[in-house]
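Usage example:
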Amino acid sequence: MLEEGRVVANAQIGELGTLLAVRAPEIAAQAHAGQFVHVRPGIGWDPLLRRPYSFCGIDRRAGEIELIVKPLGTGGEWIAERHVGDALDLLGPLGTSFVVRRDTRNLLLVAGGTGIAPMRVIAEQEAPRRNVTLVMGGRSVAYLWPSDRLPPGVEYLTTTDDGSFGTRGRVTDALPALLGWADQLLACGPWPMLAALGRQRDAADRAAAAFPGGRTLLDAQIAVEQHMGCAMGVCRACVIVTSEGNARVCREGPVFALGDIAFEAGEPATVGVH
Amino acid sequence: MPWRRPRKQVERPIDVRRSLEESLEDAAEGEEEEDLVELVDLDGASIAEAAAGEPDAERHPTEIADKLRESLAGAAITEVRAVPHAPPETLPEHGVDLAVEAARGLWLKNPVLTASGTFGQGVEYAELIDVGRLGAIVNKGTTPRARPGNPQYRIAETPAGILNSIGLENPGAEEVARKYGKVWAKLGVPVIVNVAGYSVADYVFVVEALDGTAGVVAFELNVSCPNVEGGMLFGSDPQLAAQVTRGVKDATDKPVIVKLTPNAPNVVAVAQACEAAGADGLTTINTVLGMRIDVAKRRPMLGTGSGGLSGPALRPIAVHLTYQVAQAVSIPIIGAGGVTSANDALEFLMAGASAVQVGTATFADPTAPLSVIEGLAAYVRAQALASIRDIIGAALPRAE
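Running the assembly step on the lines above writes:
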């Protein structure tokens, strides 16, 4: 649906981006973790394309959603600069959402960069009913999600490329130790992170018995970051290659089974239109 | 409620600034919500699950993968979550004569169409807007066999426009007929099939595959494709364009519209050749070739290097070519290129077009095609015209 949202808060989250809280009761009422809104960057035709942002917060009671906006290009900058009280033209909620299995007791969430958005929504929703561990990776401490914006009870582990906070290395390096514990794994992040996860899954697929927690990898779900045109399923600009052929990230995705993505087909556009 | 899953205790902080009643209300509200979520979780539960108040283990281990398979399996679409059609008498355009002959023999209730490639198969945007208000829709370019399309990137933004290089990704003519035939019949809007191919036989194949499909009222030929024999674009050469037009005209009784490419050396000559070959109408224009360079990577941004430019940036070129072609042919013209508003549509109509297509604007504002209809109706009323047809060609030089 189309809804005119109203910005209710604008906060800078380190180098990660701007966290916009937007009052949009109709969209909030239907939104699920993993889905996104397509935001119009202005009221004119230049810049022209809407920008897709995954929900980073869904508050049905307040009728509010939160989005992390990276100021990429003139469109991203315009959206990131919206102040409290400004209107925002929203199209959504769009796409598929994560499915948390009912029998999952130990839930492992993996986030890279702005991929924290849907993971934070799931952490908020699932922390009261399951054991939730969130692992987040970033370039440096400035690219990590602040722990005070996570619900209490969520175990939060971090990795940084430069070792400025948490474990030095990639987020996927931290996973093997956790896979044996986890009943289910959900992830969102840049393509190289997801591809590394895909390689770990391939290894588990070849030797499931020898791979602790291999089952968790085999059933993992991921949300793919991709730039888009229409986000309504018509333009086919956002397709990626899956085991079933081309799939539109805006319709069949953005949430996919990890095993269905053909990572060997190459990297799709993941940096946003700019 | 016959059963309920045992609730976990959730600690709720009491806000001391609020009254106890308010706080309790808040807490209760949250509980209701959580109960709702849990009941939804249990919706469709087996008797054993309901009795235990807990789901069986691994009930949906592959739900996401199943969804993908279902979505891409290609089952015929029979239902669309379409917004309901509004009663005609409640619409702003009601009572205004907007009817036009968009191509010879093709009368539409208003001159606003959607452009090929920007409106899918009509079913997608039907979830958002009342497509029954449109004059017609033009479907995604259809080829004889399925095409996977081009590598990424397929789209890049440009000043007031976009470059695209999708590569005619489509499921093939027979699959389109099978998958969308049922739903087109009840979409409540005429469908024009956009036809693409690499030989005259390709175009004829697509037209024959879709000629009998319910809802299809005409064919629009995308001649911006290279001919396999020689590699020249069908639309860049008058003789090639005429060959395709003639071949398709012989294969169908429905109106045939040729979508002209601005990348031809002499667009007017192609237009005249198509008219002579029996075309019932022309669309001016398809996208203009363009390129963007990714300066960080030092290579073209699009996967195929170049792509087609569309959007408002294109409009003056499209209006100019419409104006030129309109003076050279006597068949109707459909203007296309950067239409965002009724004023833009009026430019095309006054330049000699009988109808317009809204394309790229829909990506930014899905209601744009409907706003154009409303704006044209308001114009006819404000100018006290008998019909929108009165202004077609109004800006053309007067005949001697």
